[in-house]
What we know:
By secondary structure, the protein is an alpha+beta fold. It has three helices and four strands, in the order H-E-H-H-E-E-E. Helices cover about 45% and strands about 15% of the residues. Helix 1 packs across helix 3 (about 50-60) and helix 2 crosses helix 3 (about 50-60).
Amino acid sequence: MTDHGRRTDRRLERTILDLLERRGPAATICPSDAARAVYGGDDDGWRALMEPARRAARRLVTAGEVEITQGGHPVEPAEARGPIRIRRAR
């Protein structure tokens, strides 16, 4: 992985945690919220950051920082298919 890729990964992780910090304790975010914030452009270039944002969320699950949910229930990251939400670990 390039230095740029590693920096982007770290930015996505920090952004996920920052977005959750700014919301209520039970709030969730979509990986697209982090992707859009890190991308910062006006076009749809953020879409290229969706899979990196999902990977960042999975790393944060492993670190015990967040949970990935589907239908309001925590799921194992490896089992998540389709849209996910991210919330603080409980």
